[in-house]
User: What shape does this take?
Amino acid sequence: MSDNHRNRFTLIRWQSLGIEQFLSDEQSGESPIPGKSDNVSLTELLDLIDQKYTMLRRKLLHRMIYQFSGETTWEILDESEKFDLLEQVVAHCY
Assistant: This one.
């Protein structure tokens, strides 16, 4: 089986069986990633997932602010005002 085919198969298996299969493969050392020999700990994985969803949440809030304020108003704001507005909304969401 070629590396590309094996990697695609592994990805499909992870997508269908979920995080448990990924962690099981990591613990057994069956990493499908060429040259990868170290394992990912559960803590590291959860931290990466948290970072991913934090970025997605901020991106969604950014789009919501843009839609709410309107394109014209949004374009008038400078970058620091946009950043401050996003930070205010993020602070109220947590």
